[in-house]
Amino acid sequence: MVRKRKSQPESLPSASGGEESDSALPARKRPRNGHVIGQADEDASDEDTGELADVKPEGVNGENADDSEAEQEDDYEEERNEEGGEIIRRKKRVTVKLERGADGYVAGSIVRIKLDNFVTYDHVEFRPGAQLNMIIGPNGTGKSTIVCAITLGLGWSPKVLGRAPEISAFVKQGCKRAYTEIELKGRPGKANVIIKREFNRDDKKSIWTLNGERTTGQKVSNIVSDFGIQIGNLCAFLPQDKVAEFAQMNPRELLKATMEAAGDPNLTTWHNTLVNSAGRLEIYQHELQTQQSRQQDLNRRIEDLSEDVENYFQRQGLLAKIKEEEVMKLVRDFRVKTAEKSKLKATWKRYQRQYQEHISKAEPCLEVKNRESKKKARMTSHQDELRAKHKKALSAIEQMSGRLEKKSLETEDTSEKLGNLRQAEAERKQQIAGYRTNIEKLKEAIENRPADVDTTQLDKEINTARQKRRGLQEEQKALDRKFQAYNEKGTQINNNLDQIQNQLAAIQNIRSQRIAALGRANASCGFAMNWIQQNANKFRQEIIFPAAVSVQVSDPSFAHLVELACGNNLMTFVAQNEDDYRVLNTLNDQQHFVNGRQRVRINTIQITQEDIQSDTPYPAPREQLEASGMEGYALDFCDCPPAMRAFLRNSAGLHMTAISRETGDAIDEKAAQNCGVTRLLWAGDHYKNNPAAWDDMRAPHFIESSNVRISRYGSRAKQITSNQARFEAKFFNQNVDEEQVERLNRQRADLAEQRTQLEAEIQRASLSAKASKPELEKLQKLEEELNARKNVIVADLKRFERAKMELQKAKLQLESLLNRPSIEAERTRLKAEQMVHVKERVRLAQELTSLCLHANKAAAELVEVQMQIMQVDANMDAVDEHVRGFAAQQEELEADLERSKAAYQNHRRITEAAAAVATDQVSTLDDDLRAELSAKWEHDERSVDEIDQVIQQARNDIDLLPEVNRSAIDRLERYKSELAVVQQSVKKHKIKVDKLGNIVKKTHDQFDVALTELVTLVSAKFGAALQRNNCAGEVRLVRTGEDYANWALEILVKFRDAEDLQVLTAQRQSGGERSFTTIMYLTSLTELSRVPFSLVDEINQGMDQRAERLVHDQLVQVTCREDAGQYFLITPKLLTNLRYDKKMSVLCIYNGEYLPENEYKLGDVKGLLANIRAIMAEA
To answer: How many alpha carbons fall within 13 Å on the CB side of residue 682?
Structure first.
């Protein structure tokens, strides 16, 4: 049960809550990336836009770099150099002065802290002092919790603390929500700032309140940054879990942290300006050099092209003259062609008139011819109509003749039937007599009916014999099916045995599989292995096939690692003496082709007996290698011939390659590299959550590698490269599967036993089949005899039944013949039918006569029209005789007309083409030249040949000039244009270089002086502090020229007389030495600090009492000065007789399950102090 205590004095805070336990926070882990300055909180919510972000002062990126030049004259001082009398002007030392209120608190310092359900506290509220605050209390009571509260309450991320990564982990166990409330001292004349942060266990969200009003994390970050609070800076705020990180800070980070925490406020701004401006200056200088080089190159090229351009213009003048003359030539040619065209047109018009006159004379004859032609056309049309009429009449006659002929045939048929009536009657009488005779015979057969015989007993005997026979046949068929099944089963057993035998042979012959796989992967290797086997007699010793065939991996789970370690050495043939090596290389020297295309190319090497016997040592003992997480050297897992092993050791370096099936988190990579290996191979992180996947040897494996390359020169520095590969073993994963061999042998034994049993069953079935065969034959013979007896009885009955049916049929046929009509009735009917046919024939003959008369009339009309057409044709022939005479003359005139027209039109096209060409050429001329030439060609009387001579002379003159491409003048113009641009660019870059150079120089002068002064002061204070403890130390500024980003700060210390000053690192010094050095350095910065408060948490860990006392005295002396800011020193214990100051506050933490209230007043601090004073007064 938690009991609240009454409020205590401000210097002694009261607190209640449970004890701090390991479960209150997750396990502490050291951040990998060093300390974090102003890192944004990952816990920010929609209401909380983030924790403290990097707040960069003006000029960080160079935007306000120019403003840094405008320094007030009061910021500088002048000093005369004693040696040369020169006046040196330098920046005055900046004295940091904090804004302190009337109550002693500086702006931004912590006035009050209030926590609720935070880590170990249920509820606490206390007010720290204005200067040194020494917070003491036993371990686990919550001292470091106050550090966490300050960090998180002012907006920084939990990662700054190096504890739990999520803010929800800082909610007290058993509670759902927590909050921190921190009151910061306001600037003079302004109220204090109260920042409250609420958060819960379930999510990362935070609710921010500023002076009682809801706000965002970003606004809080801006206010905290405005006060200059630097919780992310290890030089100003050093939590317990970050003490070791201070020594791990690289020198560049230490310089940045020192500049931010102490010295001139402009140091960080100047440094950032120098980093950015110097980088830009280098870029501009490089660009300026490039542009100047280009300017010189352009000037040279312009000078080289000047002569070519002069020749070009002279040539262009001659070409212009040629063009003018060619235009004159085209115009002259056009005018000549125009005159010729006019002459041809006149000739064409003359022939046209003669043709028209001839046509006028021939018109009367043509009119007669046209009239007769129309008359003939009318008669021809009438002739066609008459022909159609006549054809239709002939068609009707043909149809009528057919009908008449048909009717005549019907009449003749009836007459023939009348003549055959007597013969038909005689045949009918003969048929009747025959049927009567047959009926008498059938009646006699029916009267002799066979006696009825009962075949029931015979049927029973037949059925019994049949059933017995069928039973035996079914048994026989069953035996046949058994035999067939036995045969199939035997065949299957034999096939399975053959298959198992083949599988055993294939499994146990891994070498053959490897050879086949290598042949598929490399056709040359496949050819070479086959050739070596066929020519084995040519070698003195065995040729060792490549490692892909001859190496067996002792543990299959290492197959992928070992094969990857072999790399390109998998396909190298090994000869064991020089003669064999020479014979083997004939494969490369001679013309051997694979598949008729690819030439054989193989890798070969000679391994001598000396190589085999030489034992190259491993770089480190296996025990040392295994301690780093690696499981051994790759060569340890290779079973192969000695020559191949020597090759893998001396050439492939497998004794220098370490391998492991473990993942990266189980590998100490640095320790493995220190074993001297050149390559590390281990399982990728892919198998961290699924280790069983590594055992799937058929699947590709994810393998991580680290290659170590040691320089052969100088300090033999190591160069390490890492990589991850997805690798699939193609050869080494093919090993003998003993379990499968055992399983196949068991299957083979089972099949052999099955075959033995099957043979016994076949023997028994054969005996049974032989025993039943005589009985089956006896039953078949009995059944045949019984069926024969029955068939005789059944045949007699069938003949009797057939006679009865035939008798009935004969009676029906006889009755049909007797019922036929008499011959006289039939004769009367046929004569009547004959008379009807005769009358129809007469009528059809009359109609046929009428049709013939009509056809004759149409034929007469057709003949008359044909005669008239013949007369018209005679008239037209007479007219044609006259027309042909005119036509001959007309043809001659038409030919002359067409020739003259064609000549004119052809010349017109030529003239038009010439006009078009001339027009096009003239249109290309400018207006002035066109006007000039127009005046010339009006008076130019030269012929085309004369103009050609002028053109040819100009061309000869051009041939005497060197040919210059138009690109020369284009290049010259382009070079001139580019030169103007480059000159302007050079001018601009010079201005930029000069301006940035001035900025860098001025900023460097300011930065270097101020930084040197800061480092000198800090080094002096730091060295003095260490000297008081019989140690030595200094702070050294490392300058790297204009590479300001790599300027650094090194802390050098020595703790023993026999050693030199050494740089402080996380590895070189002990924990106590690092803690002592750290607090001494931070104390040295305190006097120059610009932050409103600083904090160190349990810095005395690992120190002896003497060092701890010195540190305490140094802190009291520095932090209790009048100009010192607020300081928090957190420690679990205090030495006796320490130095104290009136300006320091001691805050004792009382925390536990309860505080007793009894007569001893153990929880009354004031009472305890009063008792101590009374005891001291009595003494």
So the answer is: 23
**Residue 1074 exposed, middle or buried by CB count within 10 Å (0-12, 13-18, 19+):** buried
1115: closest CA among 1126, 1102, 1104, 1105? 1126
Dihedral sign, CA of 920, 925, 926, 928? negative
Q: Which long-range contacts (CB under 8 A, 24 or more apart) does 1040-1047 make?
A: 1042/278, 1042/281, 1042/282, 1042/1000, 1043/278, 1044/271, 1044/274, 1044/275, 1044/278, 1045/252, 1045/275, 1045/279, 1046/252, 1047/252, 1047/255, 1047/271
Would you state the structure tokens that stand for residue 1078, as one six-digit string?
Answer: 């750290």
Are 62 and 280 in contact, with CB atoms under 8 Å apart? Answer: yes
Q: Quick check: 154 and 182 in contact, CB under 8 A? A: yes
Checking if the pLDDT of 499 tops 80, the result is yes
Residue 494, CA atoms < 13 Å, CB-side half-sphere = 8
CA 5, CA 8: separation in Å to the nearest integer?
Answer: 8
Phi, psi at 229, each rounded to 5°? -75, 130
Find all residues with CB under 8 Å of 621, minimum gap 6, and list them.
none
The length of the chain is: 1179
CB atoms within 10 A of CB 79: 10
Q: Which residues pair with 114 in a beta bridge?
A: 125, 181
Quick one: DSSP state of residue 8?
A: P
User: DSSP class of residue 991?
Assistant: H
> What is the token pair recorded at 876?
């037209």
Residue 1165: predicted pLDDT: 65
Q: What whole-number distance in Å separates Cα of residue 803 and Cα of residue 796?
A: 11
Phi then psi for residue 1063, to 5 deg, are -65, 135
Q: What is the dihedral of CA 990, 991, 994, 997, to 10 degrees?
A: -100
Q: Give the chain's end-to-end CA distance (angstroms, integer).
A: 41
The whole-angstrom separation of Cα 919 and Cα 930 is 11
Amino acid letter, 810: A
pLDDT digits (tens, 9 = 90+) for 950-1000: 888 887 777 777 777 777 778 878 888 888 888 898 888 889 889 888 988
* pLDDT for residue 1154: 58
How many C-beta atoms surround the C-beta of residue 95 within 10 A? 8
**DSSP secondary structure, 237-263, as one string:** EE-GGGHHHHHHS-HHHHHHHHHHHBS
196 contacts 181 by C-beta, under 8 angstroms? yes
The tokens of 1037 are what?
Answer: 């500024």
CA atoms of 378 and 872, how far apart (whole Å): 11
- The amino acid present at 510, given as its one-letter code, is I
CA angle 111, 117, 120 (to 5 degrees): 85
Q: Which domains does the chain have, with CATH numbers?
A: 14-62+96-262+1055-1178 (3.40.50.300), 554-569+616-731 (no CATH)
* Region of 278 on the Ramachandran plot (φ > 0 left; ψ -120 to 50 alpha; else beta): alpha
What 3-state class would DSSP assign to 300? helix
Q: Alpha-carbon distance 328 to 880, whole Å?
A: 59
Residue tagged 């290049």 (tokens): 971
DSSP collapsed to 3 states, 1107-1174: HHHHHHHHHHHHHCCCCCCEEEEEECCCCCCCCCCCCCEEEECCCECCCCCCCCCCCCHHHHHHHHHH
Distance CA 481, CA 1002 (A): 112
Q: Tell me: the pLDDT tens digits for 443-483? A: 777 777 666 666 677 777 778 877 777 777 777 777 777 77
Q: 């010439």: which residue's tokens?
A: 914
β-bridge mates for residue 118, sequence order? 121, 171
Question: Any idea which residue has 């996380």 for tokens?
Answer: 1066
Q: What's the CA gap between 1132 and 1099, in Å, rounded? A: 10
Q: Which of 190, 199, 181 is nearest to 127 (CA)?
A: 181
